[in-house]
Design goal:
about 60 residues; 2 helices; rod-shaped; transmembrane helix; membrane; transmembrane
Length: about 60
């Protein structure tokens, strides 16, 4: 579960680096898209994994 929280943060940082070093607009747009995708994964993945790995109800 910890890895599911760390990897999207690394992706967002990677997108920020791309945006910061970009010299042209398409590169900045790519960096922004990576950041937004990483933020979406940060918001949705932990809850989805918790729901999937939930302990089943007792019979």
């Amino acid at each position: 579960m910890t890895l599911a929280r760390i990897v999207p943060v690394a992706g967002a940082l990677f997108g920020l680096v791309i945006m910061g070093r970009a010299t042209q607009l398409p590169q900045q747009i790519l960096g922004l898209a990576i950041v937004l995708a990483a933020l979406w994964v940060m918001a949705t993945l932990p809850r989805a994994l918790a729901r999937k790995w939930r302990t089943p109800p007792a019979p």
